[in-house]
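hiii so um. not sure if this is the right channel but i have a protein structure encoded as tokens and i wanna go backwards to a sequence. like what aa goes where. can anyone help
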């Protein structure tokens, strides 16, 4: 079963999580993508904070008899509780299911979340407590953001409250990252992991505002080009994920290139690629008068 669960656990890697969100946005538009994306980035930030405050060692550090699968261990860095792969999977797919409001979407999401949690256990990189904690963490985030974004859709003034909540989350994360005392053997990725999540949250917020204000991407207007747009956009997204850090590394010090990639992905998904696709959009029928349609 190891090879099977290795393939499953790869679905929890960052590049594939963002790829799913990109496909949802490019195919189905803003409502599903922004709800799931908001749950993903805010929940990921909360997950990194809990992980680096609890400081739970990995299973093989707690019990030498546990032998993790080598191919899975290379990506299992940082503290153990709660499971990052399980949390991001539960946040993204739980957010999609909550926004879609279809029973079959919930079934598919729960099956995938369960497989992801099982993969982390079978591969020996997490404990049952880690994956259960990740799911429990995801539930209030998905529910709370779904409730908040429904209020934003009903009353635009609620957007300011949502923005204030995001700003508060970023501020608290910065305070924790800045003033939390470091342990004697503190791993290097504590500040990097939390800072990455902060950049992702900030980038998604800015990109979403720019897209809703200036672009207003509507996938149905692409017609037959929609699937082509998804394919090309995904290829570029994957190439960015694999090569952007190396290409821009000479211009940034320390982890700057890593953070640049984290911020660049939401901008590619929600701003740059939708902007470039505008030339393929069909005109919108505004009115019909005297048997002729007015278009733009």
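sure thing!! here u go:
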């Amino acid at each position: 079963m190891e090879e099977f669960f290795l393939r499953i656990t790869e679905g929890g890697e960052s590049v594939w999580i963002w790829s799913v969100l990109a496909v949802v946005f490019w195919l189905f538009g803003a409502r599903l993508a922004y709800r799931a994306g908001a749950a993903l980035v805010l929940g990921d930030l909360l997950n990194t904070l809990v992980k680096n405050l609890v400081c739970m060692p990995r299973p093989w550090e707690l019990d030498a008899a546990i032998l993790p699968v080598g191919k899975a261990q290379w990506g299992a860095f940082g503290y153990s509780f709660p499971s990052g792969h399980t949390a991001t999977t539960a946040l993204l797919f739980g957010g999609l299911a909550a926004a879609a409001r279809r029973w079959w979407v919930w079934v598919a999401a729960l099956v995938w979340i369960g497989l992801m949690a099982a993969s982390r256990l079978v591969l020996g990189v997490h404990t049952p407590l880690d994956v259960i904690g990740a799911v429990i963490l995801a539930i209030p985030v998905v529910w709370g953001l779904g409730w908040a974004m429904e209020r934003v859709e009903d009353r635009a003034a609620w957007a300011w409250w949502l923005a204030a909540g995001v700003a508060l989350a970023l501020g608290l994360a910065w305070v924790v990252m800045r003033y939390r005392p470091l342990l004697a053997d503190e791993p290097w990725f504590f500040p990097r992991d939390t800072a990455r999540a902060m950049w992702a949250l900030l980038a998604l917020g800015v990109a979403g505002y720019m897209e809703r204000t200036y672009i207003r991407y509507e996938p149905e207007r692409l017609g037959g080009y929609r699937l082509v747009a998804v394919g090309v956009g995904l290829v570029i997204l994957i190439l960015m994920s694999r090569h952007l850090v190396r290409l821009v590394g000479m211009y940034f010090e320390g982890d700057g290139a890593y953070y640049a990639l984290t911020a660049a992905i939401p901008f590619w998904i929600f701003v740059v690629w939708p902007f470039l696709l505008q030339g393929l959009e069909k005109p919108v029928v505004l009115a019909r008068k005297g048997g002729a349609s007015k278009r733009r």
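oh and The chain is about 70% helix and 5% strand.
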